[in-house]
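Lab notebook page, bench 4
Experiment: in silico fold of construct C2
Operator: M.H.
Input chain length: 485 residues
Purpose: comparison with the prior construct
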Amino acid sequence: MNYQNHKLIKTAFLAFTILVVTGCNFSNSNSSSSGTSGSPTIVGDSVTLPKTDPMDPSRLHNWVKELTNFQPRWAGYPEELKATKWLAQRLSNAGLKTKIEPYKFRQWDLSSWEVNLIDSGQSEPIKSFPIWSSRGGAGSAELVDVGFGTELELLTKNISGKAVVVSGRALLNVFATYPETYHRAAELGAVAMFVTSDAPDNLIRPTSSGQNLLDDNPIPAFQLGAQDLAKLRESSRRGGTVSWKLDAKHIDGTTHDVVAHLPGSGQLKGTILICAHYDAWFSGALDNATGVSGLIGLAEYFAQLPLEKRPRDMIFLGVTGHDAGYPHGGVNNWVTKNKESIGDIELFMNLDHLAAHGTEHVTGTGIIDMLGIVLERPLDEERALFTTKHPALIRTFMPFVLKYTPLTLPLPTVPEITANGDLEGIMGKLGVPSVNLTMATPHYHTEEDTADRIPAKQLSRSVMAHRDFLNKILFMSREQIRSPI
């Protein structure tokens, strides 16, 4: 999941509140994948497997564990290609006609980076992670604290030639409060930006810039943990400085879509498109191995049904570039290549963040941030059901949502308010009825988004809710799905 227009984010946050009170180094310049853009690879003959229960909790959780072995799954990097082949084989084994479609894109080639705080003549290395696609380079500058990085805070401080320190927040762990700060600070003369996204325990939550200009992104920028950002804020009051080195550049790379077709009986026209992104910042268990697990489980389930119970065609789509590359990845490539088929899509379902232990991050300012208080509770994590403004979607989905995944708030806001502008957001703009039942925990997008945080039974319940909803939608006419009442 990623970030959208922050003016709309505030509206989303108000709606949601109704529901619930190192220096680092990664060296790999040989990061382009094999394959030629525009030349799909047909996955070999599927393996004939004995019939299994696709909804079995241990089976679904095993897909999560297998996919998280590939990390970091950044689009265009070696582990992404391994994950591509893994997913394609799983869908082929389910009995679907599957192909890998490589395509060219503008890849950010990240080699190494470091950040050091210089205060009172002492240099201290600071653990960090670059904001994806930010400009490479090295330098040092005086620190200036700009609070939340709002327009007023930027204008009232002299930031020309300075490194700005931004106390970012992530509303509901997703919606960033600082999507416009990066480019605006650069316009006002800042030479670097350091920001925290409010993860607990000094964890770093990487992001891409919402307005990602790729080669034209203006300055280096780094995410920090809350405790380390507090050090920079404090140092700024004493005239402290920071130095940085970011060895990264944009290159022509190759990434992939995995496309699997499951034909229906032809009783009804149109196609159901089910999608999950399989790239991730780190191991990416919640985001988005759970969604990929659901994609495989649903493919297995519907492939086992008699043909007469599949009255229309289904496509199961795996995409990359959503996390490390937003907003240029997601379904952008698939939509571009299949413009003539968009009108045939009856429903777009995005599988994203399907299950996680229920946790709450107590957040505020100062000491609370530095303590990183996280409270675990026995219930599911709260969810939101994002849909386009088609009442039939909520009316059809909600009984299964309430049966399998309580603590869910329906939000018919797509495409105006969605955390996935490159997924259901695009489809909504094209007029395609779209749904996304999703959640986000305090550990999402961090190194601690691991498979042990995913309850197998909860994951199974979530996938079953999607299964039962699809069983209803498959037999609904276009007019019923799109009905205004």
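Observations: Residues 110-249 form a domain with the Glucose Oxidase; domain 1 fold (CATH 3.50.30.30). The mean pLDDT is 89.
Next step: discuss at group meeting.
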